[in-house]
Structures are given as C-alpha cells and as structure tokens.
Please model this.
Amino acid sequence: MSLTVQDLEKMQRQFPDYRMELVQGDIVVMSPSGYESDEVAAEMISQIRNWVKPRKLGRVAASSAGFRLPNSNLRAPDASFVIAERLRRSPKSFAQLAPDLTVEVKSPSDDLEELRVKIREFLSLGTRVGILINPDERTVEVLYSGKEPVILRDGDVLTVPDLLPGWEVQISDLWPLEFD
Model:
C-alpha cells in the first residue's frame, strides 16, 4: 500500500513529536540526531542565515521544514536554502519545490551512502548544490549534479558562489568547540 502526503500529515497530527518523511510511498520516522551532529547543523544554518538574511537572498530552514518534491516524496534536509525569487513567501505547510541548497549532517545512526542517495535525489529534482557534513571524519562533501564530489577538510574553505556570492566558511569553524 502506497501512502500519501495526506497520510503523512495525519500521522504527524497523531505523533507531533516525531519527524517523518514520505519516501516512495513509505513513511520513514527519523530518529533524533546526536548532539554533536545537531550542533554542527545549527552552526551551518547560522553561517548561511547570517549571510542570507541581511542581503535578502532567500530563505534558510532547519530540519523540520519539509519539501514536497516533484516525485511525490516529502523530504526534510538538515538545512536548506531557497533563493528569494523561487519562494517569495514562507508556506504555512510544506514547500512544493526542491531547495536550491540542501545540507545533510551525518549523525551516529546515519549511513553515509543513504545520505548521499538522499542528496542525489534532491539534485535530480532541481537542487543545485548538496552538502554532506561528516563530523566523524571532519569532512564536507560538496555535490553537484553530474560532477564528482568535492571533498573539503580542516584548513579548506567552503563556498557556494553561484547561490551565495561572497559567502565562505572555514571547515574547522563547523565543528563544536571543546571546553577543556
């Protein structure tokens, strides 16, 4: 039996504390992320938002924002950015498009290849740039449709010039501080 977005919405009303996605007709319950991975996601969102908002470039959202994709899946990346021209107002419910930028952060329960598949799905549906952050290895993969991923490490600088002109973040700035 293939489930629909309406089925997902009904389940979300019944279980509001659970994050869920609709993938190929199945409802997938997302487990909570680890503290470190959520801190990395929050840092990434902050870095993007602090650049985007004063320049009015578009909208930045966290992992609870769902995207109703052209293939009927409803997915929620850990962070996303949509240029202003494509999303003039924030929808009350799910955005009915693929974001321009999608970010996934590996948590302890995640499989890296499954995250790559999720990002590739977004890319195949119109997302221009996908970013996979792996706190375990302290790496950042930047993915574009039809190109080899670019792997960044501490000492490298992340840029997305076609979406966020002038924005840059040191890879080492994404990792949580340690208080010794």
